[in-house]
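User: Let's play a game. I give you a shape written as tokens, and you guess the letters that built it. Ready? Here's round one.
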């Protein structure tokens, strides 16, 4: 079997400037609603460049904020891929509370790094995660969100990569219950732009709903702040994204459980599989 390799990924995630790099599992600031300065067309236009040649391992770039950063989720994704026999490299550009509008802005600190990476490196997949509170804000959605996604998707396609929208979740409320209304709204808004731009959606929030729907469930997918993911939640998100990116693999059969029990990992894999196979009942519910 070909030697499996996971490259250490480049991770830019700051706590409002407090940390120069990520520390696995450390809380980042809560995502908050509000308005952000509008961007000019020059800041988000698609550059005229040639697609870098593809060779070597599958390369994946994660773009987002604390919902991706928590528990080093991109590395979990890479471990799942390696357990499934894929040679893979994972990189990330993340910052707490950041929106895709900021990530799309070439003058933003993260946006500048993303632009440089898309110009100079080649990727197979780019995972886009929006700030969940801003995606619920009428000041941000739909105009600014859709403009940001369209800008990033255009540049990702020019790189030769496939974009995937990572749809998150609402807060935990009490045992086995969560904010399903917010979760479904986030999913529908990701789905709308996904259909317009022909971009698949990884419905991690629906996978959360699937696990919590079992009255005998003993897994808490949310962190102690009831907003961010616990280690179980990050594993479930990574499994859902992996199953979306690689539909040729049955996530249930991937021999991975990481730092959680095999039994709990099996529960999470089953939820990811069911949601990726058919998200319609969750969207319509």
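Assistant: Ready! My guess for every position:
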């Amino acid at each position: 079997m070909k030697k499996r390799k996971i490259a250490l990924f480049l991770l830019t995630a700051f706590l409002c400037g407090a940390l120069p790099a990520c520390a696995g599992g450390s809380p980042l600031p809560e995502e908050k609603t509000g308005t952000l300065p509008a961007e000019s067309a020059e800041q988000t236009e698609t550059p005229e460049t040639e697609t870098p040649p593809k060779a070597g391992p599958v390369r994946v770039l994660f773009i987002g904020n604390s919902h991706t950063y928590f528990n080093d989720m991109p590395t979990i994704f890479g471990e799942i891929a390696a357990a499934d026999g894929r040679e893979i490299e994972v990189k990330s550009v993340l910052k707490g509370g950041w929106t895709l509008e900021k990530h799309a802005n070439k003058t933003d600190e993260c946006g500048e790094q993303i632009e440089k990476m898309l110009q100079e490196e080649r990727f197979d997949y780019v995972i886009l995660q929006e700030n969940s509170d801003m995606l619920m804000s009428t000041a941000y959605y739909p105009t600014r969100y859709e403009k940001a996604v369209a800008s990033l998707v255009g540049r990702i396609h020019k790189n030769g990569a496939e974009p995937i929208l990572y749809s998150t979740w609402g807060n935990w409320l009490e045992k086995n219950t969560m904010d399903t209304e917010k979760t479904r709204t986030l999913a529908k808004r990701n789905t709308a732009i996904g259909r317009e731009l022909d971009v698949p959606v990884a419905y991690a929030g629906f996978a959360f709903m699937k696990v919590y729907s079992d009255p005998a469930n003993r897994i808490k997918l949310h962190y102690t702040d009831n907003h961010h993911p616990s280690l179980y939640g990050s594993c479930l998100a990574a499994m859902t994204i992996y199953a979306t990116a690689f539909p040729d693999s049955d996530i249930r059969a991937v021999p991975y459980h990481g730092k959680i029990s095999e039994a709990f990992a099996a529960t999470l894999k089953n939820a990811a599989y069911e949601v990726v196979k058919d998200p319609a009942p969750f969207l319509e519910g």
